[in-house]
């Protein structure tokens, strides 16, 4: 007998499927406040544990505890809560607008609002994000006008992208928001390049790259780690682990490695995992990483542990691949409710004020939508010109494109 | 015989092939449990097990690279790239590797893989869900390139592709997944269940790679098209009343030059239609071949109708996508020249 039995292929599977009982017992959640906060110039090898733990500030009672707490004032937290509520209301309206045929497509953030909203607070003017499609909170939290976002979603006559980009693929240099690509992961390595350029020019701006758990499988993710670690680029490499990549659970991209954060360890990049549904923890970790970058200490990798409550996009039906109640079973709660509870506990907020704020915010979103719709939607009202198809391919329109524009009748 | 959509026909081709040959494996993003975002692989994992049909990480280079390795072992991988627009990360594996393995190893290793991908526009997919990258593949020696225009062909050609000993790019026009489309976006798509080409045998059959099909006989002019544009061309012919012959290429590489030459020699006029960008598009190759082989029979310059030389826009897509009106103008132009 041969000492080896025959080989068999290992294909990872999620713990549960539709019809099963949701089960997150495998997600090890440390107590809030239990993970230490190292100095920003720490030797990466000495904090390897942080790539396997989860940094949390808000506990079940709504208290902020531990070494990562105490960084934000009541006022800052209240504005954070408003940002998340605004993003949620914005999503609700735009989702409905898509169902009404006012746009072709929409992607929402439900359950992930804290990640981009809190992160934005750690950045300064002049820093640059290289986002993917689920970080509209970066714009909302930077007071980018909602009407502009909606104009883009409706592809109307005021659309800053002139109807040429897919809905939700915003762009704003002014607000530190690099133009979104539909091709996954491409922007991640570009973030490293932007950061390297800032260092080459002895500038002060830092960059942030954004990627989902599924997209970390792309080669561009790995190239990013190589360049970021080699040149110690002033960049924050964010991985939003929301458990699902369309129908594919995170274990397919993660494989045998313990966590996504742990991917940074082999490159000597400090890697931290954080509770992505905890506004305070996300801010604290982002600020730590930003300070490292600003002090020229190099890149930081952050994995945000969160859950995609909504569908992947308006083209997706999550009940086909996961239990319907899985999002309710998610052990890290809802980011809006958690911050609300904390603010009420602090005496800075109340149920009444919350209900009132919710109504005000929805009102503001509806007002913005009315204004945006007055400039048209995908199938009605003002629209970008056919002429716009031909503009902006090059800085100056070459003769062959001019001829084609004329042939099209414009 | 059953009526099938193109999605069902593609699925049936994989099902039949997996049933006949244990070496056929199917993988790609979301193709396992869920059955793919367009549902082309639905049910295959349940039927053949998760080591023959499975979800791949989001890594196109990884998908094609591992398929090449599996082929080197002796399997016949049929992989899915979720949208054609996402094959670029795999381009090196396709062009420098898959396409050349037989040649550079003198047949010691071969690469019988199929790379399936939804292509083309007309679904408000914007720049990254609407591209027609066929010319990027036809420029590469060692690949075969197929674009079906109906369920019957899709199944027969995909079975041939899976049985082919060399790498085949299989481009599925997503606008045709549910029914033939005449280019009028305000009119609903007629479902394949109402169309004779939706009649698809349940079992095994194949259609040879490299053979075009004449979709409409005519004597005044030849229209060369493939994929969605076959249906747009047929609509334009009907609307202009010109007695045109419409050739559906089905296979771009190898190309059925004989059918093209015979037709243009007979008609003396030719219009080439594709969705992809004009400059250096596959239409340029077709026009060159027509003028090389039919020059003395031509009565008018060959006209091309294509997408514009710009990225595919989201909101203005119906002004980008060649429709029957634009094709009709080209037909008239070719007739009047
Ligand atoms: C290169 C490339 N391959 C495939 C796709 C199709 N696609 C769009 S989103 C997506 C899933 C992404 O999942 P993840 O990175 O986890 O981000 P999430 O959507 O969960 O936020 C896929 C496969 C794409 N856009 N680009």
Structure description:
The complex is a heterodimer of chains A (410) and B (337). With 410 residues, chain A is an alpha/beta fold. Chain A has helices at 74-99, 113-121, 137-140, 146-154, 186-200, 219-231, 251-254, 279-294, 326-329, 335-345, 351-374, 387-390, 399-407, and strands at residues 128-130, 207-212, 235-241, 244-245, 248-249, 271-275, 300-305. Chain A is globular, with a radius of gyration of 22 Å. The model of chain A has no long low-confidence stretch (mean pLDDT 97). By secondary structure, chain B is an alpha/beta fold. Chain B folds into two domains: 2-200, Rossmann fold (3-Layer(aba) Sandwich), CATH 3.40.50; 213-336, Rossmann fold, CATH 3.40.50. In chain B, strands 3-2-4-5-7-6-12 form a seven-stranded mixed sheet, sandwiched between helices. Chain B has a five-stranded mixed sheet with strand order 9-11-10-13-14, with helices on both faces. In chain B, strands 1-8 form a two-stranded antiparallel sheet. The mean pLDDT of chain B is 97. Classes of the chains: A alpha/beta (410), B alpha/beta (337). Chains A and B meet through helix 12 and helix 13 of A and helix 3 of B. The complex binds thiamine diphosphate.
Quick overview:
The complex is a heterodimer of chains A (410) and B (337). Chain A is α/β, with parallel strands linked by helices. Helices cover 36% and strands 8% of the residues of chain A.
């Amino acid at each position: 007998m041969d000492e080896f039995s025959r080989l068999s292929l290992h294909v990872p599977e999620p713990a549960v499927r539709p019809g099963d009982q949701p089960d997150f017992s495998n997600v090890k959640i440390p107590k809030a406040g239990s993970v230490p906060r190292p100095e920003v110039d720490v030797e990466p090898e000495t904090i390897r544990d942080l790539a396997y733990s989860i940094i949390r500030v808000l506990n079940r009672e709504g208290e902020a505890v531990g070494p990562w707490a105490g960084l934000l004032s009541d006022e800052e937290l209240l504005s954070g809560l408003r940002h998340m509520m605004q993003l949620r209301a914005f999503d609700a309206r735009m989702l409905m607008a898509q169902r009404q045929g006012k746009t072709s497509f929409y992607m929402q953030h439900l359950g992930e609002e804290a990640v981009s909203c809190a992160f934005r607070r750690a950045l300064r003017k002049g820093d640059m994000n290289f986002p993917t499609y689920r970080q509209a909170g970066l714009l909302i939290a930077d007071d980018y006008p909602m009407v502009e976002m909606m104009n883009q979603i409706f592809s109307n006559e005021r659309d800053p992208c002139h109807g040429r980009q897919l809905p939700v693929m915003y762009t704003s240099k002014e607000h530190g928001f690099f133009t979104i690509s539909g091709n996954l992961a491409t922007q991640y390595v570009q973030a490293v390049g932007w950061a390297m350029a800032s260092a080459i020019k002895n500038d002060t701006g830092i960059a942030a790259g954004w990627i989902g758990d599924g997209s970390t499988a792309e080669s561009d993710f790995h190239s990013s780690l190589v360049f970021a670690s080699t040149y110690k680029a002033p960049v924050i490499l964010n991985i939003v682990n929301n458990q699902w990549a369309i129908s594919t659970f995170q274990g397919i991209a993660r494989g045998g490695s313990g966590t996504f954060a742990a991917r940074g360890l082999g490159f000597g990049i400090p890697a931290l995992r954080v509770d992505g549904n905890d506004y305070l923890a996300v801010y604290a970790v982002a600020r730590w990483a930003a300070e490292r970058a600003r002090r020229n200490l190099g890149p930081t990798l952050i994995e945000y542990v969160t859950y995609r409550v909504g569908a992947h996009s308006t083209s997706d039906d999550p009940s086909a691949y996961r239990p319907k109640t899985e999002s309710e079973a998610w052990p890290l709660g809802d980011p809006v409710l958690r911050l609300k509870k904390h603010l009420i506990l602090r005496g800075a907020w109340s149920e009444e004020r919350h209900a009132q704020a919710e109504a005000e915010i929805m009102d503001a979103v509806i007002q913005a939508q009315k204004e945006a719709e007055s400039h048209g939607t995908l199938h009605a009202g003002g629209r970008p010109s056919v002429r716009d198809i031909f503009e902006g391919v090059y800085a100056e329109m070459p003769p062959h494109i001019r001829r084609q524009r004329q042939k099209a009748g414009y | 015989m059953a009526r099938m959509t193109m999605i069902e026909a593609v699925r049936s081709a994989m099902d039949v092939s997996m049933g006949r040959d244990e070496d056929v494996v199917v993988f790609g993003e979301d193709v396992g449990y869920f059955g793919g975002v367009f549902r082309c692989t639905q049910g295959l994992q349940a039927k053949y097990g998760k080591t023959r049909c499975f979800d791949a990480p989001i890594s196109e280079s990884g998908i094609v690279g591992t398929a090449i390795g599996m082929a080197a072992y002796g399997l016949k991988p049929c992989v899915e790239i979720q949208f054609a627009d996402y094959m670029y990360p795999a381009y090196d594996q396709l062009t420098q590797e898959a396409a050349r393995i037989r040649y550079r190893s003198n047949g010691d290793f071969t690469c019988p893989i199929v790379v399936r991908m939804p292509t083309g526009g007309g679904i408000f997919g914007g720049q990254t869900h609407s591209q027609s990258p066929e010319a990027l593949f036809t420029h590469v020696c060692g690949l075969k390139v197929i674009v079906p225009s109906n369920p019957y062909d899709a199944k027969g050609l995909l079975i041939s592709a899976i049985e082919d000993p060399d790498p085949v790019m299989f481009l599925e026009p997503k606008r045709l997944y549910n029914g033939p489309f005449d280019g009028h976006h305000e009119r609903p798509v007629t479902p394949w269940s109402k169309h004779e080409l939706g009649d698809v045998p349940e079992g095994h059959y194949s259609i040879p790679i490299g053979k075009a099909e004449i979709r409409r006989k005519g004597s005044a002019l030849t229209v060369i098209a493939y994929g969605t544009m076959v249906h747009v061309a047929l609509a334009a012919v009907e609307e202009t009343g010109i007695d045109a012959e419409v050739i559906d290429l089905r296979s771009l590489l190898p190309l059925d030059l004989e059918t093209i030459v015979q037709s243009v020699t007979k008609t003396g006029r030719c219009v080439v239609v594709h969705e992809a960008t004009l400059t250096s598009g596959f239409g340029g190759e077709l026009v060159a071949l027509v003028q090389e082989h039919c020059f003395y029979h031509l009565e008018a310059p060959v006209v091309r109708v294509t997408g514009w030389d710009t990225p595919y826009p989201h909101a203005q897509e119906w002004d980008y996508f060649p429709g029957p009106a634009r094709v009709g103008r080209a037909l008239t132009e070719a007739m009047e020249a």
